[in-house]
Amino acid sequence: MMTYNNIYTDTPENIKRAAQIIQNGGLVAFPTDTVYGLGANVYNPKAVAAIFAAKGRPTFDPLISHIAEIDFLPEYAQTDDRAIALAKHFWPGPLTFVLKRKDNNPSLDLVCSGLPNIAVRMPNHPMALRLIKESGVPIAAPSANKFKCISPTTAEHVASGLGDKVDMILDGGPCAIGVETTIIDLTTPNMVMLRAGGLSKEAIEEFTGEKVLISHGDPNKPSAPGQLLKHYAPRIPMRINVPEQEVCDDEFFIGFGNVKGAHLNLSPTGDLQEAAAHLFAYMRLAESQSEFKKIAMSPIPMSGLGLAINDRIKRASYQE
Ligand code: TXA
Ligand code: MG
């Protein structure tokens, strides 16, 4: 196992040091309930530009702001009763809102990629919340991986992908949810899901009593990079929806449910939450097995978190 020298554990001193880095315009990777984020002061365009550079991410892909108190929301976003009710119910948690920006503070232009809207969330992870509070500013953070690669769910994943491009990596253990947030556009009368994620569409519909529409977007002009056809990709080709009897000898088989012959099983009991939590780590393990040329994955049902899992693996398996 490789060891990395910029990973720091959860101590008050380390959080304080990380907050100072954020305040001074540096980059800190930190754990959230969904995946690890690569953070910078939302109001510092130079620091935000460093996020895009470290990831190799095109600047037309806007970033999510992370806040630790609902009171921060009206500071830069236009809120309404629906947004506040959703925030009170689901935050902190795996849900991101897209809202209209309040006044067009130019220092937020890069975070928002020039769009009139801003994406905001409150992560459900004590280290993330402490870091944001200690920093005293919202933290802009995409997932802490190179553009198009697999999102990180451990501090070691971050270090192996971004290494010394990040000033400090806070280690909060493996992410409990394992897939990114569900993104809901609240700028229109109907709620529109821009990205399936850690909170099921059903849970939002049940709470609001309203239907959530699904955005199909334009894959070549995505408003979310997660909408690119190829994304979250392992280094070797991957086939999805493969029944156990059709797995080839040169394939690393990631199973789901009661299947035989799986090298790894996302959830032997067929639990979608457990499967989401394992997904990215298992894809990383699979791509690192040199004796296999490809990855094959079992079919995953399309309900609850299955929507987010199928979305990620469809993009991960896309052949250009
Ligand atoms: O779980 C998560 O959401 C993680 C953790 C670190 O919080 N973050 C994450 O960030 O997945 P990222 O950058 O990989 O994906 C953020 C998504 C992008 O697809 C982006 O296009 C979308 O949010 N987004 C951000 N601002 C937006 C806006 N103003 N309008 C529409 N989409 C927006
Ligand atoms: Mg990402």
Structural overview:
This protein has 320 residues and is α/β, with parallel strands linked by helices. The chain has two domains: 7-175, Alpha-Beta Complex (DHBP synthase), CATH 3.90.870.10; 238-316, Rossmann fold, CATH 3.40.50.11030. The chain is 28% helix and 17% strand. The protein has an eleven-stranded mixed β-sheet, sandwiched between helices. The chain has a four-stranded parallel β-sheet with strand order 12-15-13-14, covered by helices on one side. Strand 10, helix 7 (201-208) and strand 11 form a beta-alpha-beta unit. The radius of gyration is 19 Å and the shape is globular.
Whole-number average pLDDT? 93
Inertia-based shape: globular
Which sequence of strands runs across the widest sheet? 1-8-2-3-7-4-6-5-9-10-11
C-alpha termini separation = 33 Å
Hetero groups in this structure are: threonylcarbamoyladenylate, magnesium ion
- Unreliable residue runs: none
Q: How would you spell out the order of helices and strands?
A: EHEEHEHHEEHEHEEEHEEEEHEH
Question: Any idea what the CATH architecture of the largest domain is?
Answer: Alpha-Beta Complex
Helix content: 25-40%
Number of strands: 15
Given helix and strand content, the structural type is: alpha/beta
How many domain modules? 2
Share in β-strands: 15-25%
H/I helix tally: 9
CATH topology grouping of the largest domain: DHBP synthase
Describe the SSE topology.
Layout (H helix, E strand, L loop, with lengths): L6 E2 L3 H12 L4 E3 L6 E5 L3 H11 L8 E3 L6 H4 L4 H10 L4 E6 L16 E5 L4 H10 L3 E2 L14 H8 L5 E3 L11 E4 L5 E5 L5 H8 L3 E3 L23 E2 L11 E5 L8 E2 L6 H16 L6 E4 L8 H11 L4
Parallel strand pairs: 1-8, 2-8, 4-6, 5-9, 10-11, 12-15, 13-14, 13-15
Antiparallel strand pairs: 2-3, 3-7, 4-7, 5-6, 9-10
The site of threonylcarbamoyladenylate has 29 residues, from strand 5, strand 6 and strand 10.
